Amino acid sequence: MSQVDTSHDAHHGDHDHHGPAPGLMRWITTTNHKDIGTLYLWFSLIMFFIGGGMALIIRAELWAPGIQIVDPMFFNSMTTMHALVMIFGVVMPAFVGLANWMIPMMLGAPDMALPRLNNWSFWIMPFAFTILLSTLFMDSGGPAGGWTMYPPLVLQMGDSFAFVVFAIHFMGISSVMGSINIVATIFNMRAPGMTLMQMPMFVWTWLITAFLLIATIPVFAGAVTMLLTDRFFETSFFSAAGGGDPVMYQHIFWFFGHPEVYILILPAFGIISHIIPTFSRKPLFGYDSMVYATASIAFLSFIVWAHHMFTTGMPLAAELFFMFSTMMISVPTGVKVFNWVSTMWRGSMTFETPMLFAIGFVVMFTIGGLSGLMLAITPADIQYHDTYFVVAHFHYVLVPGAIYSLMAACYFWIPKWTGNMYDEKLGKMHFWISTIFVNVLFFPMHFVGLAGMPRRIPDYSLQFADWNMIATIGAFGFGFSQLMFVYIIFKCIKGGEKATGEVWEGARGLEWTVASPAPYHTFEESPTITPNTVTR
Amino acid sequence: MTDSSAGHEQQASAAQHPRATSKAHAMVAGKMLALAVGMFGFGYAMVPMYDIICEITGLNGKTGRVSIAEAEAAQAVADREVIVEFTSTINASGSWTFRPTTREMRVKPGQTYQTAYYAENLTDRTTVGQATPSVTPSAAAKYFNKTECFCFTQQLFEPRASKDMPLIFIIDPDLPLNVDRVTLSYTFFNSPDANSTASLSPTLTGFTQEISQ
Q: Min CA distance, B73 vs chain A (Å)?
């Protein structure tokens, strides 16, 4: 198969098409799914360091009790911006980048269904984030009321609030366009003979994620538009004086916000479902149950939103409903974890860097999932609400969860992207250093949280000092060890051991049937589906 | 150059992938776009839905309203007494004196009672105030009915003016037996500029006011 494609590519060299256009314009006008995937991945890597820098400012201030380095207002805008950048600027674009690169190749399609829309989806993002970050340099400062932007607090911020809202609108438009493109690609561009239940898991999880995005991002856009009109045009959606209700904002926001957290993790489940079978040299255990579990999680994510609001004084019946529906999510999630473990069971396992990150994901994501179950218990949550325990919970599912899956994906597919193997020794070092520091960083937050340290506050009582100092050490260790990742990527792009088309021994899936690096155009002629080219 | 090459690319891929027609893409993209637009509308539809659900269930402590005739028709329950407490809060944006004239009343469910809140405009400007009610426990909210309340309308105050604002209420005899104490709390706001709000979105303002009663 790889033979076919290389000759195909050479053959095309004679024609008007073609490799990429030369120069900078290649990246601005490109409609090639691989170019756009690359752009998304670079963008999110840059944002990862911007958001990470904000996290280090937060942790530096929390090194010791008292106000040391930044003033409290700036601290608040750091916590707010860190979240907005990491969620909308890092994890989401990185997953979209991987979708762009891999989904057409996994489906045997020549490109995304709507290539020009694809170009638009990406190029909106740098503008959106320039607008968002520019608020930090405005007179009234960046958003400082938390990324959830609860009124009435958020309505007290200065006029730069309008820029925040428009930045969110742009990000939303980008995500929705990207999702529409992914859905159209998956429905219309599969290689002849590939049924939905033969699709690779990454494609399945992205299909469901795309539906979640299309269904919830517009609700979020509506909520921030209501905030905008409340702030500038004297409507009273959330102002009690005009007959509105601030608690209603929380309902609308979390109706978006809870599916959003699954948007941030479902593609990660897909990635892990590729890596673990590859390095266990076994097919994925329980493919069908993986698909149904993903769909169940997506469905449940729409009926659990008020577990973020247990302290707003809901009636008992609602508290019970949201508590039990939240706990129910652990059933399909447990199915996934058990399937990954069963895939490894009696496999011929090897522990290359992607596999290390994948196993790290399974272990540490499960820790985050268990603290999520604790938070789901209503009476306990009233104690945990807005403490560092919550911070520990969602960082465990997002950093050694979503971010680790992204690292794993980069190591797993970078030989396919560049044609070179990355430096395995450095990769393993990156994993172990990151894993030690990420636990030093986030595990103590459980303790200070249970002991009552509130989140989003620049100062704290003396009894929390020791654990905060340890967390800050972990933060700087983890932050700076990510420079290794950048070094490994550059080294891999520049050269290294040449990768074969298959890259990993026995890897299954259409993406491994093309040459490494993947030619600029792949699958211009549809591939034939054989049992060896489908992942299940 | 790039435009034409992009177009060419699409044509080429469409030709070689007969299954991937642009019509099929437009179908899927159109449906997805409709879903996105529909969900944007759903976000706004949650506003009246929320108010209606709160009104039916009394979840957010919003009180009920009955006509005088209905109130007179109700039978007082002689052997049950409920304590009603009155509290007041002034929103940070306003400069008012605002307090109940009675702190606590012992009432029989099914009988009509009258009390009042006292308000004084502490500024030298003509100001409009608006009170919003809330009942605790929220399970009692829908059994706390009013036939007349100053919270139904916006209250106009001349500079430094003051007045007692009446409140006529009746507790529904169906009030759950485990409730023996009900707290009625009012928050008094500076009303947003009535004219400009009305001109911007008359239906919205009208609607939310109606619901808040």
A: 31
